[in-house]
Design goal:
about 425 residues; Aspartate Aminotransferase, domain 1; seven-stranded mixed sheet; four-stranded mixed sheet; 14 helices; 15 strands; globular; binds pyridoxal-5'-phosphate
Length: about 425
């Protein structure tokens, strides 16, 4: 009824004329003028039905449960018979229930949730809360991090995304990821917050030294600085744990979730904080408003998603599929010199190639071989492999075979690297 009402060529022309011609030309240049039509589970079909791709991009975790997860579709359809978005100024049963559930599932004594429609807004809320609570201006993020494109979120990010928009708000600075000494030297009595993606995804899935997060916690405690972890990509089972930060047994003051929280059906993100911070919201209960933040229909969808990922065996499945990938990667590395290695927890994978131009080339080659996976924007030598968490063994093997064929192609055609356009895809 909705898919394929117009021929693909017409859609591309309309997109170019009325939405974003620049993107159409970049995707055409890359041979990726793919317009998703039918979508189901791990698969996406081009609108003309000519090819299908196994989705290892997953929009950074939005499609954690695949496309149109049946239990979530059912929950949302049922909810539509009874409720709507709700009025964000009023009290709400669905928000109360999602808040209660997140309090159970988030680390330590994290208790309260503020809901937003997207990840960047949820980061903005975290920074507002930390600044409002501490009454300090300083926010320290890490180089190569990515927290989204709204106001304070953008201010934490890289110049390549910020410097065309004039002066940023004061107080924002950066230190290298994984370097506790540099952080200790940067934090002072003016620092409201330290914000880190637990596993920086746009930098190609980096892992810090073992003692990094415990030391970040100590440094923040020493200065009464709030520690914010961004689990927009790494949370909700992606690493085989509910939250990636659990690996280091550290409780942040604020944890931000998004993407997968939507179940890919209804935009939803959450800024979850510990009780001490709530003094600020209790003194200012209407200081942050969002008409669509915590929409009741989205809460129903998020609750159904949480039900699914807390089913017995779910995290074990993620680990098992991660192990299957790992075995395959080891075998590929033994055969291809252009494989530099990989970084991985569960199904959060950065597959490293020896040359920065190889990431984009690999994205193109993988698409030709039936897999959608993109290079890391801040480290293009890395291909991000983020399949839906529901991926099955045969589908893991399909991805590994596509990698094999693509590595073979790149090894045989090094000249392809000269054709790589300069793109900026996140
Ligand atoms: C780690 C991280 N944080 C925040 C965001 C921003 O989320 P959104 O695009 O929903 O605003 C993203 C988006 O890619 C992200 O990867």
């Amino acid at each position: 009824m909705f898919i394929g009402q117009k021929p693909k060529q017409q859609i591309l022309e309309d997109y170019s004329r009325y939405v974003n011609p620049g993107r159409v030309s970049v995707f055409k240049q890359m041979g990726l003028d793919f317009v998703p039509g039918r979508r189901e589970g791990v698969w996406l079909w081009d609108i003309d039905g000519r090819r299908k791709l196994l989705n290892c991009r997953c929009s950074g975790g939005v499609f954690n449960l695949g496309h149109r997860p049946p239990l979530l579709v059912k929950a949302l359809k049922t909810a539509l018979d009874e409720i709507d978005i709700g009025d964000h100024m009023l009290l709400d049963e669905m928000r109360a229930e999602l808040g209660r559930r997140l309090a159970q599932l988030t680390p330590g004594d994290i208790q309260y949730s503020t809901f937003s429609p997207g990840g960047a807004e949820a980061i903005d809320v975290a920074i507002k809360l930390a600044r409002g609570y501490t009454q300090r201006p300083g926010v320290i993020s890490v180089k190569g991090g990515y927290h989204g494109h709204t106001g304070f979120a953008l201010a934490t990010g890289e110049d390549s995304f910020r410097n065309k928009f004039g002066p940023m708000p004061p107080g924002f600075s950066k230190v290298p990821f994984g370097d506790a000494e540099a952080l200790a030297a940067a934090v002072n009595k003016e620092t409201a917050a330290v914000i880190v993606e637990t596993i920086p995804a746009t930098s190609g899935m980096l892992f810090p030294p073992d003692d990094y997060y415990p030391r970040v916690r100590q440094i923040c405690d020493a200065w009464h600085t709030q520690f914010i972890v961004d689990e927009v990509q790494s949370g909700l089972g992606r690493t085989g744990r509910m939250w990636a930060i659990e690996e280091w047994d550290v409780v942040p003051d604020i944890l931000v979730s998004g993407k997968g929280l939507s179940g890919a059906l209804y935009p939803m993100s959450a800024t979850c904080h510990r009780p001490h911070l709530d003094a600020f919201f209790q003194a200012n209960p209407f200081i942050h408003l969002s008409s669509f933040g915590g929409a009741a229909l989205g809460c129903v969808t998020a609750l159904a998603m949480l039900d699914q990922i807390t089913e017995p065996g779910f995290m074990e499945h993620v680990q098992a599929m991660g192990n299957r990938f790992e075995d395959g990667f080891a075998e590929l590395r033994s055969r291809y010199e252009i494989v530099a290695g990989w970084r991985q927890r569960g199904l959060m994978i950065g597959f490293e190639l020896v040359d920065a131009r190889m990431g984009p080339a690999m994205s193109i080659a993988l698409a030709q071989n039936g897999v959608l996976a993109v290079f890391a924007n801040h480290r293009p030598s890395t291909i991000q492999i983020m399949p839906p968490l529901i991926i099955q063994p045969g589908e893991v093997d399909f991805v590994l075979e596509a990698l094999d064929r693509s590595l073979d192609f790149l090894t045989a055609h090094p000249g392809m690297l000269e054709l790589i356009p300069d793109v900026g895809v996140v």
